TrEMBL record, chain A:
<dbReference type="Pfam" id="PF00005">
    <property type="entry name" value="ABC_tran"/>
</dbReference>
<keyword id="KW-0472">Membrane</keyword>
<protein>
    <submittedName>
        <fullName>ABC transporter ATP-binding protein</fullName>
    </submittedName>
</protein>
<keyword id="KW-1003">Cell membrane</keyword>
<dbReference type="InterPro" id="IPR003593">
    <property type="entry name" value="AAA+_ATPase"/>
</dbReference>
<dbReference type="GO" id="GO:0016887">
    <property type="term" value="F:ATP hydrolysis activity"/>
</dbReference>
<dbReference type="InterPro" id="IPR003439">
    <property type="entry name" value="ABC_transporter-like_ATP-bd"/>
</dbReference>
UniProtKB/TrEMBL annotation, chain B:
<dbReference type="InterPro" id="IPR030970">
    <property type="entry name" value="ABC_MlaD"/>
</dbReference>
<keyword id="KW-0472">Membrane</keyword>
<feature type="transmembrane region" description="Helical">
    <location>
        <begin position="6"/>
        <end position="26"/>
    </location>
</feature>
<feature type="domain" description="Mce/MlaD">
    <location>
        <begin position="39"/>
        <end position="116"/>
    </location>
</feature>
<dbReference type="Pfam" id="PF02470">
    <property type="entry name" value="MlaD"/>
</dbReference>
<keyword id="KW-0812">Transmembrane</keyword>
<keyword id="KW-1133">Transmembrane helix</keyword>
From TrEMBL, chain C:
<feature type="transmembrane region" description="Helical">
    <location>
        <begin position="87"/>
        <end position="109"/>
    </location>
</feature>
<feature type="transmembrane region" description="Helical">
    <location>
        <begin position="20"/>
        <end position="38"/>
    </location>
</feature>
<feature type="transmembrane region" description="Helical">
    <location>
        <begin position="239"/>
        <end position="258"/>
    </location>
</feature>
<dbReference type="GO" id="GO:0043190">
    <property type="term" value="C:ATP-binding cassette (ABC) transporter complex"/>
</dbReference>
<dbReference type="GO" id="GO:0005548">
    <property type="term" value="F:phospholipid transporter activity"/>
</dbReference>
<dbReference type="InterPro" id="IPR030802">
    <property type="entry name" value="Permease_MalE"/>
</dbReference>
<keyword id="KW-0997">Cell inner membrane</keyword>
């Protein structure tokens, strides 16, 4: 049975040790959409992706992917579900001891008994889709950052997953690679019928391609809406984020004791 | 790294490694442990075995013919019961004697077998009747001193 | 002050015990997920190249020199008692029982163990292990177990090669250079070295060392903090911990094997 929502997150909370990272998040991703989760660095965006991938378990709440609740699955069930997911890690996370070709072929070889001829064709198709068919014989160390990320994207879609997650796909890319990657995500989502979830803080690039945006701050969702909603939003936090202003609800200073007190200038003898 | 070259190297490594093990087994060591199937066991009782231990060699005319496999105290006769495992190739007469010897002055102790003249041979689980105990150095010195004292004593 | 010191000691102890617990669970997980390492033996063969074949040079050269030194020193000592014929026994016994397994294991720990830790640690730091998990491939089965079995298989072979090479070195110095009688060198050696007592026990030792070193190396890599200092610290810890483990295990094993408990 086909659910309209591929990913459903209900009231999820998660702590790293004693530090709460997420405090009750609700989020859904509809099939065929590109969703962006935005927020400043260290607000728990990557944690959210790891929860969807089932690499960590929430303290409370449920995560459902393709109608299955991750908390109720055992290791085998989780692995079966993960074959429907692809994930693009921040710096690609390519296997450094394999060529580009072997990296993309990795899942096909691990999870299927296809003959090597068929694998070869499928790998070259995926590499062609990201424009790197000619780089098949290179080692990951010979690739630029943008190319490595495209190879990782080809690897993530090797098994034709339903869901692809991107962890900071735009971080550290030059403007040209930025545009290429953004277009690629949109095009692959549309042509392959994927659902994409982006975690990013690059507002301008992602607003060009996403259907729906969630803003996360301090462990909760503070704003959500379509790209146009967000651009027009007058919520102070969103406004500060979209326009990159230094002052606003998010302050420049890490919480501390009053400056004057800290410097012991308040008439106290040192 | 080409896969076939890699396989070749690992194959070579395994062959050389096993060759080294074989070299150690055949050239450096020897199967001193006499196999159960090619051996028979006899028991000898001693009043004193000195420092004899299991795995000590059993020699006849200086040639190793077996090993000590068990040393225990027989609580009925208050003697040590030593089990010897002998190679089947060597058959000894029934009246063979066993003595506990020492190689060199302070070396390891072994059992020396001296063949008798009986036409009946020792069989598995037989007992060697004629035995000679280990020489205990303290007793030897004691005897020596005692003998000297007697000699020197005024009559 | 004293209270703080005691607290710190308690904290350290708890952490240490916790880590040992994790290491043991990790070891059990490796054994449980070893199917892939044997079903696709090519993975294990590949790792045998990196841990076994690439350790060959250091093992062979060290073995030769250790044997040559044993030949020289042994001769010096034995000729004082006029028993230089027993040089073969001395060289072979020291190598087969102790030096072969132990020194080969120490070299293996610093050559292959550190490389394993650094590799696994970097794979973790660059999220390759997470990526593998997300691709529904268990990194314990696919990455860790083949390295474990490669180390366990390689270690006794390397120890045997070390001993053989050492005996050859002792033979070179003792017989060819100094002129100990060749016949008595080999025959005395053969009559004294026992297969079960000496050679087999030496092999058992090296297998145990192989298990200890690879488990420590893999665990340290898997457990390393995903930073540059984390990986380098873990690599150092692998060499220190596994060397100490080898020496301590050697004492325990020797006590059991050569105390006449047979």
């Amino acid at each position: 049975m086909q659910h309209d929502n591929l990913v459903e997150i209900e009231d999820v909370a998660f702590d790293y040790g004693a530090r709460p990272v997420l405090k009750g998040i609700n989020l859904t991703a509809k099939r065929g959409q590109v969703i962006a989760i935005m927020g400043s660095s260290g607000c728990g965006k990557t944690t959210l992706l790891r929860l969807i991938g089932g690499q960590i378990k929430p303290r409370q709440g449920t995560v459902r992917v393709a109608g299955e609740s991750l908390g109720e699955l055992n290791q085998a069930g989780l692995y079966r579900l993960r074959r429907k997911m692809g994930m693009l890690f921040q710096f690609g996370a390519l296997f450094t001891d394999m060529t580009v070709f072997d990296n993309v072929a990795f899942q096909l070889r691990e999870h299927s008994d296809l003959p090597e001829d068929a694998i070869r064709d499928m790998v070259l198709m995926k590499l062609h889709a990201v424009g790197l068919r000619g780089a098949a014989h290179l080692m990951p160390s010979e690739l630029s950052g943008g190319m490595a990320r495209r190879v990782a994207l080809a690897r993530a879609i090797a098994l034709d997953p339903q869901l692809v997650m991107y962890d900071e796909p735009f971080a550290g890319l030059d403007p040209i690679s930025l545009g290429i990657t953004g277009n690629l995500i949109r095009r692959l989502t549309d042509t392959l019928g994927l659902t994409s979830i982006l975690v990013t803080h690059d507002v301008h690039e992602s607003l060009k391609i996403v259907d729906y945006v969630y803003f996360v701050s301090d462990g909760v969702i503070v704003a959500e809406g379509t790209a146009d909603d967000i651009k027009a939003s007058d919520l102070p936090y969103v406004h500060q984020f979209v326009h990159g202003e230094a002052e606003g609800p998010v302050t420049f200073h890490y919480p501390a004791a009053p400056y004057v007190e800290d410097l012991r200038l308040g008439g106290q003898s040192a | 790294m080409n896969k076939t070259i890699l396989d070749l190297w690992v194959g070579l490594f395994v062959i050389v490694g096993i060759a080294a093990l074989l070299f150690l087994t055949l050239k450096v060591g020897s199967m001193n442990t006499v196999n159960n199937s090619d051996s028979y066991e006899v028991v000898a009782r001693f009043e004193n075995i000195g420092g004899l231990k299991t795995r000590a060699p059993v020699k006849s005319a200086g040639v190793v013919v077996g090993r000590v496999v068990d040393v225990r105290f027989d609580n009925e006769v208050y003697e040590a019961a030593v089990t010897l495992r002998l190679d089947k190739r060597y058959a000894f007469p029934k009246d063979t004697s066993a003595a506990i010897m020492t190689s060199g002055l302070l070396g390891e102790q072994y059992i020396g077998l001296e063949a008798g003249g009986d036409s009946v041979k020792l069989k598995d689980k037989d007992r060697i009747l004629i035995t000679q105990d280990a020489v205990v150095l303290e007793n030897l010195i004691g005897q020596f001193l005692y003998g000297n004292a007697q000699e020197g004593a005024p009559k | 002050m004293l209270k703080q010191a005691i607290e710190r000691l308690g904290n350290r102890t708890l952490q240490g015990v916790g880590r040992i617990g994790f290491a043991i669970r990790f070891f059990v997980a490796i054994l449980l997920h070893s199917g892939t390492a044997f079903r696709r033996f090519g993975l294990t063969i590949r790792e045998m190249y990196f841990s076994g074949v690439q350790s060959l040079i250091i093992i062979l050269v060290s073995g030769l020199f250790v044997g040559m030194v044993l030949g020289l020193q042994g001769y010096e000592t034995l000729q004082t008692y006029g028993s230089e014929d027993a040089l073969g026994i001395l060289v072979a016994m020291s190598l087969v029982r102790e030096l072969g397994p132990v020194v080969a294991a120490l070299l293996f720990a610093s050559r292959a163990g550190s490389a394993i830790t650094a590799e696994i640690g970097l794979m973790k730091a660059t999220e390759q292990l997470s990526a593998m998990e997300m691709m529904a491939v268990d990194p314990i089965a696919r990455v860790v177990a083949p390295r474990f079995w490669a180390g366990v298989i390689s270690m006794p072979l390397l120890a045997a090669l070390f001993s053989a090479m050492g005996i050859f070195g002792g033979y070179l110095v003792g017989v060819q250079l100094i002129g100990v009688d060749e016949g008595s060198f080999w025959s005395q050696m053969q009559s004294a070295v026992d297969f079960e007592q000496d050679i087999l026990n030496g092999v058992i030792k090296s297998v145990v060392f192989g298990i200890a070193i690879t488990t420590i190396a893999l665990f340290e890599g898997y457990d390393a903090p995903p930073t540059a200092e984390g990986v380098s610290g873990a690599t150092t810890r692998t060499v220190v911990t596994s060397s100490l483990a080898v020496l301590a295990l050697d004492f325990v094993l020797t006590a059991f094997m050569f105390r006449g408990l047979s």
